[in-house]
Amino acid sequence: MSEHAVASRFRLNRMLPRDPAEPHRTASSLELFFDLVFVVAVSIASSQLHEQLRDGHFQNGIATYLIVFFAIWWAWMNFSWFATSFDTDDWLYRVVTIVQMSGVLVLAAGIRPAYESGDLRLLVYAYVVMRVALVAQWLRAAASAPTLRRTSLTYAIGVAVVQMLWLPFLLLPAGPVRYIGVTVLIISELSVPVIAERRSTTPWHPRHITERYSAFSLIVLGETVLASATAVISALDEVDSVLPLIGIAALTLVAAASLWWIYFWPPHHRAIGSLWSSLRYGYTHYFVLAAAAAFSVGIGLEVNVLTGQTELSPRAAAFAVAIPIAVFLLGIWFVAIRKVGDRVVDAVLLAAVALVLVDPLLPSSVLVTCAALVAVVVVLVVRPCLDSGDD
Asked: Rounded to two decimals, what is the model's pTM?
């Protein structure tokens, strides 16, 4: 029976490469649903990081957060890049996508044990489930698209091999050996697209894929605002004066609005061109998204200092706010702004990063951070984007 006949019989579409110049290509409702489910895991990861830092467990909290966030981000990113090339939106594609979504919900359940006792079993099992579902998608693409069969099979084999290595990784003892093991596995995961795409690249849609990143970044920023607002509101009855809380609330709103403004100022689709520029854009977003999610952690710690619920110093809590903001700004500048902004934009943005980082050492850190971010936004308003025209 021919492939076309089998597809017709089971009401499936052939998984052919999508046109990278397809007009009006936008994120589907399934993709947006996928993002919302993943943000559940992001929220839990950031809230657990907050608890770890509040209690003074810096090394364990930060290391675990970076590992957990990689699992979330990498599964999300691989789905998004596959979808921009091969999304068929038939029932089988939807079912496999929902399997990946179920995997991230199980992963979310494994985040607390990972932080509290170093138990990564549930985390790894859920991650492998998501990745095996992606292997099935790549095998389907290999069967449907002869021109990209080699690339698709390389992806399928590469992803499958790395997943087989994650399971024995669980046998490694906690400590330096485990950190070395997870580093090797993460490098292996990151290497698969580089190897698979080097001879024949999959047809990504620049506007679609950057819209996917933009939507996910927006949702993460929204979750950050929600978590920060919840922390501030819950502390209203625990402080003698609400003025410090008003300052934190103002910082949250100004910072979140400024980060949104800065993120969406450059035309992101211009950053997606060659394989290496696309990899740079995608991989740098790990730091951008992780920083966006961690911003609420710093706000929560600022509130904890005011209410006496932590032994952290005000300076340490201020650094927990400053570092995520600085990382976010540097990440967006590196992948999207530096090629379309002039020297004034570059200078002001990098100066703002420096000010934000030294801000915790100054008496009125909230005011300096807000002023630096607003200054960047003002410059972006008055300075033209050097490459903002349509294709």
From this structure: 0.92
